[in-house]
Amino acid sequence: MSDSCNGVRRVALVASIAMAATAGSALAQNGSTYVKATANIFGYGLSTPQPGGGGGGTLANVIALNAGTGRVAAFSAGGMAGWGGALVNGPDGGNFSNSTNIGPVGPISGYNGPLSGQLVGVFIEAGDISALSAPGGMSYPDLASYSAADYAPGLRQVFFIGDGLTGTGSGSIQAFHVPDGAGFLVLGIADAWGFNADAGYYDDNVGGYETSYVIVPAPGAASMLGLAGLLAARRRRA
């Protein structure tokens, strides 16, 4: 299917998400953004991303969040990205390296999990975070750990998003609980030499992921309505 057709369908998807979410609350957020494969998830708050070896790439995508507690996010992502000039995998990641193991950078956690080149995110609090210590990373011991129904990442803790479904291109919409105090959602890629070293080597990356998101402001009916709307839109698209 052509990229233009996919783009039209993603716009329709976001509209469906918005209708479902705003029916429960006027404060629901939704939108879409293109996350380049060069987007350095570890470079938040810097005038230029951490360079590392092989280049620091580009600044990651930053989405300002509406204030609230008990917020829940859901995502839909598609497209292709590649390393060394060739497009090789979608947002769930691929086998360019069968694992990723990158340490923390400043206040941002490291990332350790199966596959490589996947879409990842991190929630950041408002204000200056430069003096804060990095938290421990999320636990992704195997491929099954990417397929849970919901996740609760902490502040400054890099987390797997992939295509936003429990399977690769199929399954149920996953829910990501937004930590209280988060002022920003940052989207990008975790990269390094061979995906197993210090962060870096972004400059030879190509392609990226078109990413739609919806964030509902409170648990319960509003959250379920927003996520159900996203799932229904996915089913209609299929």
Descriptive notes:
The chain has one domain. β5 (72-83) and β6 form a beta hairpin. Helices cover 16% and strands 34% of the residues. The chain contains two helices and 14 strands. It has helices spanning 3-24, 221-237; strands at residues 29-36, 39-40, 58-59, 61-64, 72-83, 87-89, 94-102, 111-116, 119-125, 150-151, 159-160, 175-177, 182-189, 205-216. The chain is globular and about 45 Å long. The longest helix is centred in the first third of the chain and has 22 residues, at 3-24. Strands 1, 5, 6, 10, 12 and 14 form a six-stranded mixed beta sheet that branches. A four-stranded antiparallel beta sheet has the order 4-13-9-11, with no helix packed on it. Strands 2-3 form a two-stranded parallel sheet. The protein has 238 residues and is α+β, with helices and mostly antiparallel strands.
Q: Which secondary structure elements does this structure contain, and how are they paired or packed?
A:
Layout: H1 3-24, E1 29-36, E2 39-40, E3 58-59, E4 61-64, E5 72-83, E6 87-89, E7 94-102, E8 111-116, E9 119-125, E10 150-151, E11 159-160, E12 175-177, E13 182-189, E14 205-216, H2 221-237
Parallel strand pairs: 2-3, 10-12
Antiparallel strand pairs: 1-14, 4-13, 5-6, 5-12, 5-14, 7-8, 9-11, 9-13
Helix pairs in contact: 1-2
Which keywords apply here?
globular, 238 residues, 2 helices, disordered N terminus, 16% helix, alpha+beta, 4-stranded antiparallel beta sheet, 34% strand, 6-stranded mixed beta sheet
What order do the helices and strands follow? HEEEEEEEEEEEEEEH
Average predicted local confidence, pLDDT: 85
The count of DSSP E runs of length 2 or more, i.e. the number of strands, is 14
Structural class: alpha+beta
Q: Which outline best applies?
A: globular
Question: What is the count of helical runs?
Answer: 2
Cα gyration radius (Å): 17 Å
Helix content: 10-25%
